[in-house]
Structures are given as C-alpha cells and as structure tokens.
Design brief:
The complex is a heterodimer. Chain A is an alpha+beta fold. Chain A folds into 3 domains: 2-117, Beta Barrel (OB fold (Dihydrolipoamide Acetyltransferase, E2P)); 130-166, no CATH class; 212-414, Chloramphenicol acetyltransferase-like domain (Chloramphenicol Acetyltransferase), CATH 3.30.559.10. Chain A has helices at 122-131, 149-166, 191-213, 226-237, 247-261, 306-322, 327-331, 395-409; strands at residues 2-5, 15-21, 28-29, 34-39, 44-48, 53-58, 65-67, 71-77, 216-224, 267-270, 273-276, 282-284, 286-287, 293-294, 297-298, 325-326, 335-339, 358-362, 366-372, 375-389. In chain A, the strands form 5 sheets. In chain A, strands 9, 12, 15, 17, 18, 19 and 20 form a 7-stranded mixed beta sheet that branches. A 5-stranded mixed beta sheet of chain A has the order 7-2-4-5-16. In chain A, strands 1-8-6-3 form a 4-stranded antiparallel beta sheet, with no helix packed on it. In chain A, helix 1 packs parallel to helix 2 and helix 5 packs across helix 8. The longest helix of chain A has 23 residues, at 191-213. Helices cover 59% and strands 0% of the residues of chain B. By secondary structure, chain B is mainly α. Chain B starts with a helix and ends in a 6-residue tail after the last helix. The radius of gyration of chain B is 11 Å and the shape is globular. Chain B has a single domain (3-19, 27-80), classed as ACP-like (Non-ribosomal Peptide Synthetase Peptidyl Carrier Protein, Chain A), CATH 1.10.1200.10. The model of chain B has no long low-confidence stretch (mean pLDDT 88). Chain B contains 5 helices and no strands. Classes of the chains: A alpha+beta, B mainly alpha. The interface between A and B is medium-sized, with 19 and 16 residues.
Chain lengths: 415, 82
C-alpha cells in the first residue's frame, strides 16, 4: 500500500489545491502516469505517480487545498493486487498514523465524476472553474476533441450573449433617481489578473528567499560561438523545417555536459547541507504569455541527443505556456538556464531558484572584434554568466564550469 | 494561391503561435517580433506552422530576413503558385 501525496512543486510551496482527478478508484496506474492536476500559484501542474499498482481510493476531493505531503490517494502496489481483481478494503488501507491531517472529507470509491475523463487542458479546466462553466457542456476544438482555453472563452462569451437574447422584452423601467456619486469599490480582478497576481506572489516569495538565504557570487565569460553557429547553419541546411535546431539547444546541452565535469553545481541545498544529484536535469526559464515565468526541467539533459533535446525543449515550452507541466518537471531541476538575449540584453545576473545552487545566464549574440591566431576578425560571441551559491562552491570550481561550457561549445559536433 | 489566401494562411499559422494576438490589429508592414512577444522558439514554431499550412520549406537564411506579414506574403507567392 502506498500513499500518493501532494507533491512539493517548488521550494516555497507549502500547500496546493487538487484541481482534478484524472483517474478513478480501480484504475491501474504505472510509474510516470499522470493521475491528477494540482493548482499552484505559478501553474496548473499534472502530477505523476511514482508507484505502479491500482488506485484503491481517493482521500481528497477536487477543489481542496491541502499541505504538501498530505496523502491524496491510496495505491495498492503492484504485486499486492492485480488490476482486474476487485479491490477489497483492508486494515492496511487506513491512513498511516503519522500522515498529515487530510483537509477534506474522504471521497467514496466510485465518486469520481465523469468530467475527469474528459480531454481538457488543465488551464482550460481552471478557467472553466473560475468562470462557473460545466466542463461537460463544453465542446473541444483541439486534437481529439481536447477542450482548450479558447473553447472555454468562447463558451463564456456565448453565455454572456444568450441570456440577453432569450429574455423577454423588459417593460420600460420606472425612472430611478440617480444614486449619489460615491467612490466606486475596487473592481474585482479578472481571472487572468488573479493568476498574474498569484504568479508574482510566488516569484516574489521564491526570489526573496533566494536573496535572503543564498550568498550569491557571480562570474561571467565571453564565449566565441563562431564554430557552433557555423556547424548549426550547416546542420540546419540538411534538416527539414520540423527538425531544425535552435542555438539555445546547444547552450543547454553544453551546460548539461559541463555539470558532469563539475558535479558540485549539479546539486540542491537541503536543510543545512548540499545534496549532489546523479541525474542532470537542467531547468529552463520560460517566459509565459501575459507575464511571469516558470523553470521546468528537461530530464536527463546530458543524455539527450540534440534532436531529442530540441524536441523536448519545444514540447516543454509549449506545455508551459498551455499550463500542462508535470510535477517531476517542476520539482527536479538541479540548475537553471536562462536566456534574455532575445531583446538585446548582453549580460544576465540571475537569481538562483532555491533549492538549486546555480543559474546560468546567456545574453544576446553579438559580433565583436576577436583575436584568432594573431588576426583581428569579427566574431559572434555570447556572454555566459554564472550565479552560484557560495555555501556550496567557490570561484575556482565555478570558473572551471564556465570554462567547460566554453570548451564544449567549440566542439559542437560532439554535443 | 493569391496574396489574400496566403495572408490568411500566414495569419492562421500565427494564431497557433500567439493565440492572444488579434489579427485585426496586426500591422502587415511592421515587424512581427516588434508587435508581438515572439521569441526564437515562437519564431521556429511559426515557421513550422507556415510550412504545414502552405507546404513551403523556408531556408533559415531567408526566414531570418522575413520580418513582416507583407514580406512573407511576397516571398511565399511564387512558391505557392501565386
């Protein structure tokens, strides 16, 4: 028997709201399956299960906010039952004594509404909830009939029009004296504005903690990208448009490989000590439309080919902006890469996302006079910066890391 | 395809990438990057969406200099039988 608990999806997350169940009691699940959607201040996140087995029962109802670590469901682990066997309650199904209190009443076994089997994006589900729309009544325009935000917005717009059309002509209203002019109460925030405000609060909490607790130090290095860009240009010439690479993919891969060489930076700071990680999961800072950012992980970044990395990167950006990130992507980055070069910024001095211990910033590509073999030539260069936690590492190792990134980018065909 | 059809296809491709953009307010003679919050990933996705709409594979070097809707329509015309 295993508990499926409210995950921690960020250093400052103490609680989350269960937005929806995507499975129901009796469903077989395997490690990595998405079973629920959790709403946090930064995003709606699809939560994976890390145990294979059969869901025995749900413990928390959608719409309930519970602390991180609260059991949300009980899973009968593989070997303890077969998916086809009827699930019989056993004494072992009782919540463990040490479990945190569950803030919601238990959900009866078959009580998962049919709506949770609809194809609907988490952000669309959230918007429907905010607008008071029944998701069952919505029609999806996405792939396979998936309901998307635009479908919810269209349904909301129709709802605004329908009552006016359906209503009988109203009798002329009696004249009413105009109320005295008074200061109008503040208009309630729109759902989008509320989401934006919640996002800013989450970022504020995380970044304030970072600057309060982490003794940052900063290094920067200018990197010659002429070889990398020449290789990339040739490479993209032979690729179909759907498989082209962005130079950002090379930068991310170089960071991932450099972490193997300087493993001190592939770590998290937990409690009062540094915990080194075996897997290299590079987080990528993604700006969201409408403001805010998230920094989910590209899992096993060092092991991905550039094709795989590019595919995963595109998928991650797309899902981040659609509100379909997964819990493991939010909780497992060990370092973050951010690029602010799109608008011409040359240097980035990043703030570390706790509990990570470093962030790498890339600026814009610029042409600079560069001395190569005694000749001054125009050369495309990028400024790479590193903000690192001085509790964990020092300038000597951090400079070795930036030097490794530089060296790796001089051999792009090896990335 | 005539220019009007190409323009419509390009705008549809753009709506996949920047769904919040109102086609009615986009200036066809100004840089899309300057009008919309488009980054390099959006730009690549736009390129792929144009390819899927019109079956035209635009080389990277050409894509880099195509900044406006008008420039795209003009470029795509002869490549779509227009």
């Amino acid at each position: 028997m295993a508990d499926f608990v409210m995950p921690s999806l960020g250093a400052d997350m103490s609680a989350g709201t269960l937005a929806a169940w995507l499975k129901q009691p009796g469903d077989a699940v395997k490690r990595g399956d998405i079973v629920a959607v959790v709403h946090t201040d930064k995003a709606d996140v699809e939560v994976e299960v890390f145990t294979s087995g059969v869901i025995e029962r749900m413990l928390v109802e959608p719409g309930t906010e519970v602390p991180v670590g609260t059991p949300l469901a009980v899973i009968l682990e593989e070997g303890a039952a077969t998916p086809s066997a009827p699930v019989a309650p056993t004494p072992a199904a009782a919540p463990p004594a040490a479990a945190p209190p569950v803030a919601a009443p238990s959900v009866p076994g078959p009580g998962v509404p049919a709506e949770h089997r609809l194809l609907i994006s988490p952000s669309a589900r959230q918007l429907a909830h905010e607008l008071g729309l029944e998701v069952d009544a919505l029609t999806g325009s996405g792939p396979g009939g998936r309901i998307q935000r635009r479908d919810v917005e269209a349904a909301a717009a129709e709802r605004e029009v329908a009552p006016q059309e359906a209503a009988a002509p109203a009798p002329p209203a009696p004249p009413v004296a105009a109320p005295p002019v008074a200061a109008a109460p503040a208009a309630p925030l729109t759902p989008a504005a509320e989401r934006s405000a919640a996002m800013r609060r989450a970022i504020a909490a995380s970044m304030s903690r970072s600057k309060r607790e982490i003794p940052h130090f900063y290094l920067a290095q200018t990197i010659d990208l002429s070889r990398a860009l020449a290789w990339l240009g040739q490479e993209n010439l032979r690729r179909p448009v759907t498989e082209r690479l962005l130079h950002g993919a090379l930068l991310i891969k170089a960071v991932a490989l450099a972490l193997r060489e300087v493993p001190e930076l592939n770590a998290t700071w937990e409690g009062d000590e540094v915990v080194r990680r075996d897997d290299v999961n590079v987080g990528v800072a993604i700006a969201l439309r409408g403001g805010g950012l998230v920094a989910p992980a590209l899992h096993h970044t060092d092991e991905l080919t550039l094709e795989e990395l590019m595919h995963s990167f595109r998928d991650l950006v797309s899902r981040a902006r659609a509100g379909s990130l997964r819990s493991s992507e939010m909780s497992e980055p060990t370092i973050t890469v951010t690029s602010l070069g799109e608008r011409g910024v040359e240097s980035v001095f990043g703030v570390i996302f706790p509990p990570q211990v470093a962030i790498v910033g890339f600026g814009t590509l610029v042409e600079r006079p560069w001395i190569t073999e005694g000749q001054i030539l125009p050369c495309p260069v990028v400024n790479a910066s590193l903000s690192a936690d001085h509790r964990v590492t020092d300038g000597h190792r951090a400079s070795a890391f930036l030097a490794a990134v530089d060296r790796l980018l001089q051999e792009p065909e090896e990335l | 395809m005539n220019p009007q059809e190409i323009r419509q296809s390009v705008l549809e491709a753009l709506s996949d990438v920047a769904p919040e953009a109102d086609p009615a307010t986009i200036r066809t003679d100004l840089s899309l990057r300057d009008q919309l919050d488009i980054d390099s990933m959006d730009s690549l996705n736009f390129l792929i969406a144009v390819h899927e709409q019109l079956q035209v594979d635009i080389p990277e070097a050409d894509w880099a200099r195509l900044q406006t809707i008008d420039e795209l329509v003009e470029y795509l015309g002869p490549r779509t039988g227009g």
